[in-house]
């Protein structure tokens, strides 16, 4: 895990934007609090990013969402809210404890019926999803070593037009400093290079600052 080093001004501005523009609901806040109380890491997306995910799900007209990395269900909650009532999100989580906390949060938010949590290593779960209807939207946010593997699975389980969002692609700038983080940064770099080179993908990447430090996300579209 990387330490979030956030300038006070970034956090103040994020709080302002969250209050004035984003308007998270009590269920979102409760999901964050529940994770802290359960001793889970505070590595969910920021509220403005969660709402971006919800809006991208809505704007893309997605009905089937795949998430890799559930934690307490904060990002799952935002995305599930962007789905129609018959829409579904499959979210992959390695730790049973995280999946249990997420289940309670998603049920309490009234979106539990849209969410299928699969416990286990995502590289074991993803092959079991082949042969189902294609996913329209994929959010990759788990162990960064496997980002390129997850990107490949997203393409295979998607269709032309599927939108893929990958979190944490800047990692406090460590992507440009080989050796500073020998597991996460090389995995992220491999995925970014794949986004730029794989003929199946068209992509961009955006840097962000805020409560989660200096980081960013990439968005790809399956050709
Ligand atoms: N998307 C969440 C945050 C996810 S944090 C949000 O924004 O609210 C990353 C999560 O990925 C953690 O819960 C961690 O347990 C899980 N994870 C790590 N390695 C994994 C793996 N190999 N397969 C599935 N989940 C994994
Ligand atoms: C970490 C993981 C994340 O998905 C994130 O958004 C921030 C940090 C981590 O493992 O440190
Ligand atoms: Mg993340």
UniProtKB/TrEMBL annotation:
InterPro entries: Cation-dep_OMT, SAM-dependent_MTases_sf, SAM_O-MeTrfase. Keywords: Methyltransferase, S-adenosyl-L-methionine, Transferase. The keyword Methyltransferase applies. It comes from the Bacteria. This is O-methyltransferase YrrM. It comes from Paenarthrobacter histidinolovorans. The lineage of its organism: Bacteria, Bacillati, Actinomycetota, Actinomycetes, Micrococcales.
